[in-house]
Design a protein that fits this description.
There is one protein chain. This protein is of the alpha+beta class. It has 2 domains: 4-220 and 233-431, Alpha-Beta Plaits; 448-661, Rossmann fold, CATH 3.40.50. Helices cover 35% and strands 26% of the residues. The strands form 3 sheets. Strands 1, 2, 3, 4, 5, 6, 7 and 8 form an 8-stranded mixed sheet that branches. Strands 9, 10, 11, 12, 13, 14, 15 and 16 form an 8-stranded mixed sheet that branches. The longest helix is centred in the N-terminal third of the chain and has 24 residues, at 61-84.
């Protein structure tokens, strides 16, 4: 275990000095949101890495090591150039980076140093001697905002924002190989020669000068400060934080080539003309990105980075890196659908998604590092993002082939820059719910006792004896098989629901499915839809609170708008119990598989409906998450027949082997 001082010293390498300075001079507990910087903003974009990544990926593990070495050399040399000119590396963006300099920045000196260092990089490897790297540089002088975007409790990304950023991005895009394009303010200040390009925009040029580039070393780099502030861990993927805490810089994530789902989402908003940056738009963007980050977290993906792009910013989300999980492709599709719904009259969103090889690794200099990804998969996602219409999600053919049939798409062909004229791709439309009926009845030897015990408990329901039965056991011990066999042998009024992918279908999905199942087997004469039943059973003023349950969102009113979180939860529980009570006229059996995968709100509502059996520890893994949903105790529940909920828990309440019915 590394000590705290060493931990923050290593962690500071992942944070720009401009942000460290802010945290070092701010009161404890304060979280950075927006700060104003004045000087020169520079974007340096390398060309040639994508081809190298694709070529080295064919060499397996050795190729990853070679690329890691080359990337580290490149970023080390470029960082030295920035530090030598008294600059700060604000952020990496794949094989590009953004830097900030004081107003005294000399673009000609910077290019001489950068090209000299680039020559050293190209001489360091046989790969780059054969296929040399080049840089394209954009720069402009003025004011911009440095913002911390996202959710402070989960992940923050530092990002330059403002009209100056977009001017620099455009200049970098126009710059040729080993050229620096400067905007009007910097070009006139430094008396550079001007050049008018095809759309009548004027930039100032610093081109390659080989005779000046060779042998240039530049001044020595300055020392970096170390800041100890707990909020800094929010700016780094948690996998890296954990490794730094355990063993310092030597524990950085292992670099590798791997197959990853990449999502690029473009958020475009209107910028104010104020050169200091659109503060109102920053707050709005931060709120939207916070919700996007929550969707990524919910679907168990990771946030790679946010980059300036066009008139807004693009967010790169990964499923399969740094950690690969089951159903990454399905979770990526569900995440894309949640993010695209965040668009409003202020922010437009479009998304590109791809499945393909990426280089994933922790690269850079010892004093400035970052976990980065680059390669074919991310490039394809970016191309599709650029072609998508507003509100549209486009994915490539490889990702479509990996997704299950419940993901519905429409096929189309597009011309994609650098890829082809008639490239097959797909527009994602919907994700259908899987059938909750019992699945394959694969019997596992040795379950007869547990099956018999469960049948006895189900028969007890008919006699009015209600309880909650837990089926626990280690992974692979046959819990799902047992519940499937049980449900297939029950009468038609037994409701079987699997929560395996419930997180894909939104908040309160399980609670809605239970209502729907009870409604379908209701023995009353009323045979309207579930929505009609809800509207006829609940006071209209509370309907806005039930949007998740009936999939009919309504605007908040004077009765619901002022409710705090605790009162809102209590009222929702009361309404749900009222609806369930109206549908249950006799004891019912509800079998829920993978109950632990249901959303927390559904778990809380079901907990209030079901009668918890005595002896379950209040703070066990199974129930600790429900404590905050309990309101008023058992005496506050309306009179109604008890329900039995048979739950499958992936983490047992106690350490056992095999199956256990309690």
């Amino acid at each position: 275990m590394t000590d705290q001082r060493s931990f923050y010293r290593e962690l500071s390498a992942y944070i720009p000095q401009s942000l460290l300075t802010w945290y070092g001079s701010s009161p404890a507990g304060q979280i950075h949101r927006v700060s104003r910087l004045e000087g020169v903003l520079v974007c340096v974009d390398a060309s040639g890495f994508t081809a190298l990544t694709k070529k080295l990926a064919l060499s397996g593990r050795g190729g990853s090591e070679d690329l890691t070495i080359l990337l580290n050399i490149f970023f080390e040399k470029m960082s030295q150039t920035v530090f030598a000119c008294d600059g700060d590396v604000l952020k990496f963006a794949g094989d590009a980076f953004w830097a900030y300099f004081p107003a005294s920045f000399d673009p000609q000196l910077f290019m001489r140093l950068a090209l000299g260092r680039l020559e050293e990089v190209n001489d360091s490897s046989g790969f780059t001697r054969e296929h040399p790297l080049n840089i394209h540089v954009g720069a402009e002088r003025g004011c911009f905002s440095l913002a911390s975007l996202g959710d402070p409790s989960f992940r923050l990304e530092v990002e330059p924002i403002g009209p100056l950023v977009h001017a620099v991005y455009k200049a970098c895009d126009y710059a040729g190989e080993n050229e620096l394009y400067a905007g009007p303010a910097l070009g006139k200040h430094c008396q550079l020669s001007s050049k008018t390009i095809c759309n009548d925009e004027t930039f100032f040029i610093v081109a390659e000068q080989p005779q000046l580039a060779q042998g240039v070393t530049g001044p020595a780099s300055r020392e970096f400060a170390t800041v100890e502030h707990p909020q800094l861990t929010s700016y780094i993927p948690q996998e890296i934080v954990a490794r730094l805490k355990s063993a310092g810089i030597g524990a950085s994530l292992q670099s590798e080539h791997r197959q990853v789902v990449s999502l690029f989402a473009y958020f475009e908003y209107a910028c104010d003309k104020d050169s200091s940056g659109p503060v109102e738009n920053i707050e709005r963007l931060c709120e939207t990105l916070g919700k996007a980050f929550a969707a990524v977290r919910k679907m168990r993906g990771s946030v790679a980075r946010i980059d300036p792009y066009g008139k807004g910013h693009k967010l790169l989300m990964l499923f399969g890196a740094p950690q690969k999980l089951e159903q990454d492709e399905l979770h990526a599709a569900a995440c894309a659908r949640e993010v695209i719904k965040l668009a409003d009259k202020h922010i437009s969103i479009r998304i590109g998604a791809s499945f393909g090889p990426l280089y994933c690794g922790d690269v850079g200099a010892q004093r400035r590092r970052e976990y980065t990804v680059m390669g074919e998969g991310a490039n394809m996602a970016a191309r599709l993002m650029a072609k998508a219409a507003w509100g549209q999600i486009l994915c490539d053919e490889r990702l479509r082939s990996k997704m299950p049939e419940i993901v519905r798409t429409e096929r189309l062909t597009l011309a994609l820059k650098g890829i082809g004229e008639d490239v097959p791709c797909f527009a994602l439309t919907t994700i259908e719910e899987e059938d909750s009926a019992a699945g394959d009845n694969n019997e596992i030897i040795g379950q007869e006792f547990e099956l018999g015990e469960l049948k006895n408990r189900c028969r007890a329901i008919s006699n009015g004896i209600g309880n909650v039965t837990l089926v626990t056991g280690e992974a692979g011990s046959g819990k799902t098989s047992l519940l499937t066999r049980l449900s297939s042998q029950q009468s038609n009024d037994c409701i079987f629901i699997t929560c395996k992918n419930s997180v894909l279908y939104g908040r309160n999905w399980l609670a809605r499915k239970i209502l729907s199942g009870l409604h379908e087997t209701w023995d009353q004469s009323f045979r309207g839809s579930l929505t009609e039943y809800v509207l006829s059973s609940v006071d209209r003023r509370w309907i806005p609170m039930l949007g998740d349950l009936i999939e009919r969102p309504e605007s908040e009113n004077e009765w619901t708008r002022g409710l705090g979180a605790e009162l809102r939860l209590q009222k929702l529980v009361e309404l749900y119990l009222q609806l369930v009570s109206g549908l249950v006229t006799a004891p019912r059996r509800i079998i829920v598989d993978d109950f632990d995968r249901a959303d927390e709100s559904s778990q809380g509502l079901v907990y209030e409906v079901a009668k918890v059996i005595p002896g379950i520890p209040a703070k066990s893994n199974a129930f600790s998450i429900w404590e905050r949903y309990i309101s008023g105790g058992a005496g506050s529940r309306p009179n109604m027949p008890d329900l039995e909920v048979i739950q499958r828990l992936s983490r047992p309440t106690c350490s056992i082997k095999g199956l256990r019915v309690t």
